[in-house]
Each structure stands twice: as structure tokens, then as C-alpha cells.
Amino acid sequence: MATQKLLLLPGDGIGVEVMAEVRRLIAFLNKSGLASFETEEDLVGGSAYDAHGKAISEDAMKRAQEADAVMFGAVGGPKWADVPYEARPEAGLLRLRKDLGLFANLRPAVCYPALADASSLKRELVEGLDIMIVRELTGGVYFGEPKEIVTLESGEKRAVDTQVYTTHEIERIARVAFDLAKVRKGLLHSSEKHNVMKSGVLWKQVVTSVHKSEYPELKLEHILADNCGMQLVRTPKQFDVIVCDNLFGDMLSDVAAMLTGSLGMLPSASLGATDAKTGKRKAMYEPVHGSAPDIAGKGLANPIATLASFGMALRYSFGLAEAADRLDAAIAEVLGEGLRTKDIAAPGQNAVSTSDMGAAVIKAMEQA
Ligand code: IPM
Ligand code: MG
Asked: N or C terminus: fewer CB in 10 A for the chain?
């Protein structure tokens, strides 16, 4: 079995605790011969700022470029509220996405049957929910220039962010979304605001043309982003795959996450283009939740989003679909048995710690 190189970037806050469970899972996979991983670790976010004065060091970036995949925890916290904007913890994450060319962010929102009651919506609305949000990740208002705050002659300030997309950027994310829809239910919703934004007009045109010329057998629906947010909380099961820009994807994926019961459940994969020569693609996997400084260091965090993100790495980077299925089944089993971290526990129900949850998932995998 070829050895795969993984770079672990736990980051800040609960990122550190949840990544510890991934480390244990990797040790189990290596020991049982299901996989062969070699891991390296480095700092990102506030912890990197404390050590190097920037949100990610050049050395860590080099390791990320060389790894077969990167596992990312979370960044940020009140401790770094006043660091310079360029060195804020989030800058490390954004640089990884940009420099590795990770334009396609896959955020599946799956409601495990055992958790339907943890959702803020009624059980019948979310039970069996399985949607995939495909978020464009290296363009749009996150990276558009100019991006600045200038002082006007009057002394007043003016802030600018720039929303910008090119045909090529829209085409490639549309193809990722259509390819996923093809192996799912054959339905793609494309979400933008063409009624207000030029980038929305182009987005809609380009997605329509990719559909017509390359995926005519699939169903494409256009939906305004505000309506999409509303429909997601009204009847979420009408969706299969949703494709959208960077900022709408950020918001809609948080909405979708909560439908599943907790932000602590949602994994994600960020993928680059496939290299025509090697067939490989750069990739980073991370939970959708943040660093949750309020509960950091207390063993309260839910490791499932991060474990499931590692499951996506097994699937999308390492071709280990069987191990990924086994991991998903183990998570469902543990939840089915009633094990809950605090974020998904019903009022009055006993909650287990981060490491108890991690250990239970690994044990269920072992016994599968
Ligand atoms: C996410 C996060 C990030 C984003 C932050 C931490 C920069 O909210 O991955 O959804 O806005 O993309
Ligand atoms: Mg977000």
C-alpha cells in the first residue's frame, strides 16, 4: 500500500481537541492495515501568529503544497482580536485556500436519523435530509480587489470589497456541481442574485450554458440566494445539490448545517483542479464549525465534523471509499446508540466528552 502524506493543521481553540481524535483514527487505520498514512503537523491561525508573527509560516505553506492532503481544524479567538488585519488567524485559512487553488468547497449536510430531534426544525422536515452545498472558494468578494478602507477628503472613511467572477471560475465550479448532481439525484440549484448583481447575471448565464452544452440530461433550477436561504429552512428536502459563490456559500452552508442538528456535525472538502498528468488534486478537509473559544479546552467539542471531514479525505483524496463508508457507518451507529456530545444532547441528557466520542467511533469501526 502506497504511503500517503497528510499535513495536520489543528489551529486554535477546539481545533486542537478535535484533531486529536483524527490522530487516533489515523493510528487505528495504520495499525489495522486499512491505510498507510505518514503525518506531519504545523501551526496555523492564532497559534502560528504567536510563534511566527503571521497566520501561517512559509514553511507550513511549503508542507501544505507537498502533502497529499491537508487536515485543518479551526482558527481564531478573542486573544487575537487586535492583531493586524493581514495577520489575523483567518488569513492563514484564506491563504491555504488561495495558494493551493482549492476552488471547490463541498459541504454535505446530512441529517442522521438519530439526530432529527436535535434540529431546530420539525423532525419530518429534516429526517433523511441529504444535500450538498458546492461553494466557490477562491474568488468573489473574499479575494476581489480593491479591498480597502480609505479616508476621503472630508475625513469620512469609505470601505470597499469587490465581488468579481470570470467565466472560467464559474464554469469550473459549475462542472464540479453538475458532476456531483449526476451521481446523486440529478438536480442542481444554482443560487445567485442576478436581480441586483452583475456577477449574478454572469453566474446565471455561464451555469445555464454549461448545463446546455455538457449536462442537458440533468435538471437545473436557478434560485435567488435570499429565496434559497428561506427555502432551506422551509422545505430543505427539495434540494439535492446547490452551487453558489463564496459569500452566499458561506452563509447558506451555516444555515444548512444547523438543519442537521449542530454545526458540530458538518464536514467539508476543499478541492483543487485535477492535474492532467498525475491525476492528483490538491485538497484540504475541515469541519465547518469554527474554533469555539467559549468551550475550548474543556473536552466539550463534538469531533464528528472533523472525523467526517477525514472521511471525505479517505473518499476524495485517497480512493479509500470502503474505509470512508465504514467510518460514516460507525458515526451513525454511535449516534444511534444514543451517544451525544453537549451540542447535540437533548436537554437533561448526559453528554460525553470529545475523546469519549472519538473513542466510540473508532471502536465501532474496529468492530465493523
Ligand atoms: C468558513 C468560515 C471561514 C469563511 C472564515 C473562518 C474565514 O466561516 O469556512 O465557512 O468565511 O470562509
Ligand atoms: Mg462560514
From this structure: N
